[in-house]
Amino acid sequence: MGEPIEIQHGDAASTDASRGGGSGARPATAGPQPDGATRGAQSRSAALRNRVRDQRRSPARPRIWFELALIGISYWIYSIVRNAVPEQASIAQKHASWIWDLEQWLGIAVERSVNHTVDGVGWLIVGMNYYYATLHFIVTIGVLVWLYRRHPGRYVAARTVLFVTTAIALVGFYFFPLAPPRLMTDGGFIDTVAVHHTWGSMASGPAKHVSNQFAAMPSMHIGWSMWCGLAIFFLARRTWVRVLGLLYPLATLVVIVSTANHFWMDAVGGEICLLAGFLAARWLYHSWVFQLPQVPARERAEEPITVPEQWSEPAASSARR
């Protein structure tokens, strides 16, 4: 009846292979193979992609000298840009009136009553003036140092959040100049620094001539304090420290309102900028800041392997025998 069709096909294939000198056994090539230089370039490109991917998943801690220079230069640029924004007093006053009218319509315009009430307690308002002038920098720098030392794997991403937040704030300063409550025309607010003659504020005294008085929206006092508070709350171990982390931005909110340096809406603007900063870091590092590993993968790989001392005792005793 004849051989099965599959066997006939197999014999034909083997016959063709034998006629072709065994060429059918070799795999077909799609085209010319890359030379050594091309393969080297491809391997370098792949290595670079892998390195960028690893850096995004577990960012390494930067050198301390580089980080100090970066933060110093960044704040210097921030100050220059912030103060270079045209003050536009008439527009800033118009925006302040618009914000105040909006808050009154919403029923949350309590800043003036809070300002007058707290101003009646001398020691309290003076303490708030110093709080406003100093802790904004001291606490933020302290949290940066703490993250750098204790949470190096999260430091770069957390710093990125702070940088993005501040950069967005500069855009707000430029496109929405806003007079703070204490500078409102016929606002009825008290400039507590001017009244109580406390030092340190860039918004009053001689420093006001070199500082943009209408860079109030958004409030970076709130943006930065909330950044600090969230970092402390999510990463600190002691419960009371975590509670202090949550209380810090709340206290800052009370201070900026009591001293008439910001409206409630300025605080909302600061929180929106911070949210954008966290979202940007989430996109860049493929994870939320506080979910990144505490120690970068590179530093974990360099850590020496230690074993309990008793593990080596049997080996040492057998060696003596």
Folded structure, characterized:
By secondary structure, the protein is mostly helical. The protein has 13 helices and no strands. Helix 3 (64-84) packs parallel to helix 7, helix 6 (122-150) crosses helix 7 and helix 7 (152-175) crosses helix 11 (264-285). The longest helix has 29 residues, at 122-150. Mean pLDDT is 80; it is low at 1-27.
Topology:
Elements: H1 5-19, H2 36-57, H3 64-84, H4 89-106, H5 111-119, H6 122-150, H7 152-175, H8 192-196, H9 220-235, H10 239-258, H11 264-285, H12 297-302, H13 313-320
Helix pairs in contact: 3-7, 6-7, 6-9, 6-10, 7-9, 7-11, 9-10, 9-11
- Unreliable stretches, pLDDT < 50, 5 or more residues? 1-27
Number of strands: 0
The biggest beta sheet, please? none
Name the quaternary structure: single chain
The value of Rg in angstroms is 32 Å
Q: How far apart, in Å, are the first and last alpha carbons?
A: 82 Å
Mean pLDDT, rounded to whole units? Answer: 80
In short:
The protein has 321 residues and is mainly alpha-helical. It has helices spanning 5-19, 36-57, 64-84, 89-106, 111-119, 122-150, 152-175, 192-196, 220-235, 239-258, 264-285, 297-302, 313-320. It contains 13 helices and no strands.
Supply the key terms.
13 helices, mainly alpha, disordered N terminus
